[in-house]
Specification:
Length: 381
């Protein structure tokens, strides 16, 4: 497999890095402290094409490949993971679900606004009673007098309060598991569809996460995306790409942790030398840098398979579990290298440490990724 980036991919990475250096990092700290969504910063992603990365040009998207996408997500999350997850949940989950499975009419209606940043997208699969076991979801959609009536709720949904468009999985068929689930596209303001108060989270304070509530929410028949009963299979395909994005998020967070550790090691002195001169700490940084490089290569490998149209779920699960655990490890070690300074909010590494944990939970926990990997190795269904 060739990991030499094309001139276009290098250019895209440079633009994302420049944006992250100029607009994220320290500038996000006040939003993180206030648990506030950075609307004005997220809006700047639109003109760069970063809100329509995977959308075809005919719908106003940038139509980039997955390798470019992974590079953008890595750089944004290196700058700030809250903005990073806002961007990739919009791209990978909501927008990509519509771009992959919606009718031409639905694509024409929703994609131009989503791809250019005139609207943001959210995607609801998880429920209060079902996360890893997503096929056990209970939100129902019933067809009555030409309208779908939705009842139920969704938990932990990224961009829930800030989205103009939300894709929602609901049970339409009598089958109690995967084959009973269909996908719907909902506009903000649909009667009976409300969003709960944003959660107070451990990390990613500048991202928006909230509950979706459906109380006799009425949508037209045209809100159904694809065939009845196809929603779960669609979601699994969407998650394959989502896991590549989450892996890239892990790489970006891990790299940010190393960046901060290196900076601190050069400025802090003890016993008459800078921390950078201590062998013990040098070894820590060397190991972390090696593991981040492995995580990056696994992520680019999964992205390359996806671009080639080959099955990528096994590679995406490997990349996701390794990159997320590398992010957590790098963040933990970076706090350690900072000593007491790593434990206070003045230093970015404290935020990076809190943000890293989500990568081991979202888009399928580490345990679920290992299950996906093992099933393929053991040839289990
Ligand atoms: C900040 C944030 C943003 C999110 N954004 C979204 C979003 O935009 N859209 C969306 O739909 N969801 C979203 N989620 C939900 C996320 O995908 C779920 O939290 C995740 O899939 C885990 O589900 P759960 O929380 O119900 O945990 P559970 O499924 O209850 O798992 C609890 C524990 O049991 C373990 N476990 C479960 N089953 C098995 C098994 N078979 N073998 C071994 N261990 C197992 C899990 O690994 C975990 O450790 C988000 C979550 C968070 C925290």
């Amino acid at each position: 497999m060739d990991f030499e980036l094309t001139p276009e991919q290098r250019q895209v990475r440079a633009v994302a890095r420049e944006f992250a250096q100029a607009e994220l990092g320290d500038k996000i700290a006040p939003y993180d402290e206030r648990h506030e969504f950075p609307h004005e910063i997220v809006q700047k992603l639109g003109p760069l094409g970063f809100l329509g990365v995977l959308v075809p040009e005919e719908y106003g998207g940038a139509a980039l490949d997955y390798v470019s996408y992974a590079l953008i997500v890595e750089e944004l999350c290196r700058g700030d993971a809250s903005v990073g997850i806002t961007m990739w949940a919009h791209n990978s989950l909501c927008t990509n679900h519509i771009a992959s499975f919606a009718s031409p009419e639905q694509k024409a209606k929703y994609l131009p606004a989503l791809a250019t940043g005139r609207g943001l997208g959210a995607w609801g699969l998880t429920e209060p009673g079902s996360g890893s076991d997503a096929a056990a979801l209970r939100t129902r959609a019933e067809l009555k007098q030409g309208e779908w009536i939705l009842n139920g709720s969704k938990a932990f949904i990224t961009n829930a309060s800030v989205a103009s468009t939300t894709v929602v999985m609901a049970r339409t068929e009598s089958d109690p598991k995967a084959k009973g689930v269909s996908a719907f596209i909902l506009d903000k303001g649909v009667p009976g569809f409300t969003v709960g108060k944003p959660y107070r989270k451990l990390g990613l304070h500048a991202s928006n996460t909230a509950e979706l509530i459906f109380e006799d929410a009425r949508v037209p028949q045209t809100a159904l995306m694809g065939a009845r009963g196809a929603g779960f299979a669609q979601s699994m395909k969407v998650l394959e790409g989502g896991r590549i994005a989450m892996a890239a998020m892990g790489v970006g967070i891990a790299q940010a942790a190393i960046d901060q550790a290196v900076k601190y090691m050069k400025q802090r002195s003890a016993f008459g030398r800078t921390l950078a001169e201590f062998n013990g700490l040098q070894g820590m940084v060397a190991d972390l840098a090696t593991e981040v490089e492995v995580a990056r290569l696994l992520t680019l490998r999964a992205a390359t398979l996806k671009d080639a149209g080959q099955p990528a779920s096994h590679a995406a699960a490997m990349a996701k579990v390794f990159a997320s655990e590398t992010a957590m490890k790098a963040a933990t070690k970076a706090v350690q290298i900072h000593g007491g300074a790593g434990y206070i909010t003045e230093f970015p590494v404290e935020r990076i440490f809190r943000d890293a944990k989500l990568t081991e939970i979202g888009e399928g926990t580490s345990e679920i990724q290992r299950m996906v990997i093992a099933r393929e190795i053991l040839r289990l269904s």
